[in-house]
Structures are given as structure tokens and as C-alpha cells.
Amino acid sequence: MLDYRLEYFSYFGTTASTLSDVERNAGFVSAFPTVLEGNSLPDITTGEKQPVGTLPVKGQGTVAVQLKPSTYFAITLSPSPQLKDGGTTLQLELTDSTAKFFSVTTTIDTKNPIRKEEITATFPKGIDAAKLIPGVDDLFWLSVDKENGVIRYGKTFRTAAVTYLMATVDVGDIVTKPGPFIWIKQLEYVSISSQQTNYDIRPDIGKVSIGRLPIVDDLPPVITESIALSLEDLALNTTTSIANLDPACQRLYGNIAGPNIQLDDKNFPDFSQALEYSIRTPGCICYENLKSKVGEFGNDPSMTYLRITLGLDEGNSPGVPFVVEIWPSKHKSPIHDHGEAYAVIKVLHGKINASYFNKLDKVNVKLEPDIMLEKGNITWIGPDNYQVHQLHNDFDRVCVTIQCYQYAKKDMSHDEYFEYLEEETNDKKPFKPDSDWDFISFKKLVKEEWERHLKELEWK
User: Fold this and answer.
1) Which of 164, 235, 312, 451 has its CA 20 to 30 A from that of 3?
2) pLDDT of residue 86
């Protein structure tokens, strides 16, 4: 038996809401998942396995398990603590070759008391993405949605974008017209099991969490002020209000969303032009600094950008929480994560494209489509949302953004490092967010450089 903690938490949309320490501590209980040894697959219809928890709302919710698997893993949702008590059970079975949903029903047939049937499902990212990889730690989740009749399975992040197995079923209405999957409305008890068939890889089950809401649709990456939201935005889910996001994002947004957070201000209205000149002109500070940074993320000279920090490291973010980043034309970041921190990004000048990925790994899957962000746009990142991305300036002019970061309230590890994939080798490497200049000094230097340039033009 392997010990782990069971955490209950609520969702708002697809983002975990903030709980008080008292509430969070009260939500932890001790439990023991089942780990089997041998070559035969586990039979959930026998034995006296106890459920590890219950769905707060019958027939809906998300169960997530942190796991380093062997070759078999299952999450089971049942209407009663034991299948032999009657009813139909939903089971997600994962192996190193496939992923499947099953319904398991007890019958009155003494010769065949258990009927196990596969539920028709699709692989939105292909079957290879859905498989478990023995020995590789990951987050595996199962979502059941009684209202929309949707069952989902995904990995790494609890978002609809990383759904790897999906079934749409007819639940119907329990009063007027019950459907063949009406039994989903009674699912309540959660059990998990992992089988050790490869004796070199023992399953290691970590924390299990149960959310009261299913994963339905992801909050869009672009934030719009509430006064600008339309009925079409709500209907089509094209943008989100800051009110939908975690308080950490709300705090960061409140600091940078205002109209005075701009690049070209009354004190330096030519700041963006001066940056373009400094980037393109040998001997200027931006040009020379970018040249010196080649090799920071590999040998690609286009994988360089400038980080200009504002203020001090407050101990609540990876590095200084507010950073102006300068992206020359045709330059990009590596594919990287954000240490499970929250982030809000505002474009101060120009345009930039963002690509998102399901995980930071050699076999990552790009999540379509890319989004194009332009001056004034604000986007966000959460521990489960848009956490792995790549920014790339595919346009002809410099782009300037302000990025701001904050750890989740429940994050007690405070990982100071981001991780990125080195392009040549696809190896995962750490990167500590640093600073090329502080903002006040940098702005002064660029302004002086620009004024010298303007005087030279006058002399000519």
C-alpha cells in the first residue's frame, strides 16, 4: 500500500479557487490506494477495496492523481462503496498501449454477474498522447459531466485543451426521458488502482485531488475589461473577464492594466523608436547586449531577448515580479514553463505570437491555435492553464511586453527556476529569471543614446 493525501478543492471555471488555510487543512484525509503485483490485470469486481473519497456532487467532478505509473492504472467512479452492492460503475483504464472508458454493471445473471462494456470514445490528440509512460511522473485526471453528458481524460494540466480521451453519451433526464447513461448521475465513490507488472518500475501514487466541477471549457487566454464584454463573447467564449481568474491574476492585472502603463509616455514619447534604433545599430546598448546573450538558450542567435526589471524580488514570484521584455523582430523564447506560477502579460508596443504546449517534454504536443497579441492586449497564465508556451515575434518591428508573476497561495516550494527545452537537443534545462537592467537605469541610457543619435542627424 502507498500512502498519499487526498485534497478537496473547488473550481471556478477551470481554475482552482483560493481556500483558507483552515479549509485546506480540513480537506486532507489519509487514505490508501491499491497497488497490485503480478501479470494479471486487476478485477474491480472482487475484493474489499475502499474508496479513497467521494465526488462532492453526484455525477460530476474531476479526479486528478499525481502518479509515476508502471504499465496499468485505473480510476473508478461508483454509485456505492463496493461494486457488488449493485449499479453501474465508470472506469478509466490506462496502459502503456492505450486508454479506454468502460461501464461495469452488476446483473442478475448468475453465470455472468458482471457486464463490462467499452464506451465509445475518441482520441483528440491521437492514441499515443493518451498512453501512460511507465516510470514517468505525471498528473492524470478523469472528468465526468452529467449535465452535458461528457467524459474526459487528460494529463499534466486540468484543462480541456489537454483532453486525450473523450466520450459524449446520452444521459437524458431522470424524470422525463432517461437515457442509456442515466446511471452517470449516481456516480459518487472514487477508487484508484495501479498494477506493477514491470518489477523495475514500482507505481508511486502521490496526491489525489477531487474537484466539484467537471472540466467543460477553458477560460480563453485573452482578458477583456468587464465593461467591454459582449453577449457574443460570453456565448462564444472568445475572451474572459478578470473576475473569472484567481486572485493572484487579479492582483497582477490590477497593477498593469491601467492606461498609464505604457511604453511611449510624455517623458519619452519616442521610446519605442529609440529601442528599434538601439536594437538594429552596432555599438548601441541593446544591440551589444543581445549579441552577448547568444548561447543563453542554445546557439540560435534569434533566441535572445532583453529582460528589464521593475522593483525588487518580493519573495512571492520567480525573480522580480514585474519585468519589461523586449523582443526584436524575428526573435523568440525557447519553449518554457513558469514554475507553476501565475502570470499576466500586457503588450506595450508591437505584436507577438504565443504558442502553447501540453507539457514541457521532448514529446510535447502543440495546442492549436497560436494567438496573436498586439498593443493593449493582456493575457494570463495559471498553474493549469497556458503554463508551457513560446513567444515569438514574427513581425517586422520590435515588440515590448510587461510580464508579471506570482506564486499560487498554496505554493510553499517557491521554485525560483523556469525550465525550458534546448532547441538543439530537446533537453529540459533550468533557467533562473534574471535582469539585464533595472527599468529606470535602462530608460535613461536609451534616452541618452537616442538624443545623441538625433543630434548626429541634425549635424548631418
Assistant:
1) 164
2) 66
223 beta partners? 240, 378
Strands (E), 107-157: 114-119, 138-145, 150-155
First to last CA, the chain: 81
- Half-sphere exposure (Cβ direction) of 57: Cα atoms closer than 13 Å: 15
User: Are 4-211 and 222-459 in the same CATH fold?
Assistant: yes
Whether pLDDT at 439 is above 90: yes
Q: What is the DSSP string of 6-61?
A: EEEE-EETTEEPP--HHHHHHT-EEE--EEEESSSPP-TTSS-PPPSEE-SBTTEE
Q: Which residue would you say has higher pLDDT here, 9 or 307?
A: 307
Would you state the cell numbers that stand for residue 450, as one nine-digit string? Answer: 537616442
Q: What is the DSSP string of 418-429?
A: EEEE-TTT--EE
| Phi, psi of 293, deg, nearest 5 | -90, -5
Name beta bridge partners: 209: 7, 64
431: part of which helix (H) or strand (E)?
A: strand 428-431
Position with higher pLDDT, 30 vs 51: 51
pLDDT at 198: 57
Contact 112, 102 (CB under 8 A): no
Whether 61 and 143 have beta carbons less than 8 Å apart is answered as yes
180: three-class secondary structure by DSSP? coil
> What is the reported pLDDT for 4?
33
Q: What angle do CA 244, 249, 254 make, to 5 degrees?
A: 100
Q: 207, 202, 216: which is closest to 138 by C-alpha?
A: 207
What is d(CA 164, CA 260) in angstroms, rounded to the nearest whole number? 43
What cell does 55 get?
Answer: 465526488
- Superfamily of domain 222-459 in CATH is Jelly Rolls (2.60.120.10)
| 459 touches 452 (CB < 8 A) | no
Q: CA nearest 279: which of 428, 92, 446, 86? A: 446
Q: Which helix (H) or strand (E) holds 235?
A: helix 231-236
pTM: 0.81
What number is the average pLDDT over the span 222-237? Answer: 91
Q: Does the pLDDT value for residue 142 go beyond 90?
A: yes
Assign residue 113 a region (left: φ > 0; alpha: ψ between -120 and 50; beta: otherwise).
alpha
Please, are residues 421 and 334 in contact by the beta-carbon 8 Å criterion? yes
DSSP type of residue 432: -
Quick check: 344 pLDDT over 70? yes
Among 52-61, 102-111, 297-306, the range scoring the smallest mean pLDDT is 102-111
CATH 1.10.220.30 describes domain 4-211 = no
Element (H, E) at 172: strand 172-173
Check: CB of residue 153 under 8 Å from CB of residue 165.
yes
Query: In the chain, what are the domain boundaries?
Result: 4-211, 222-459
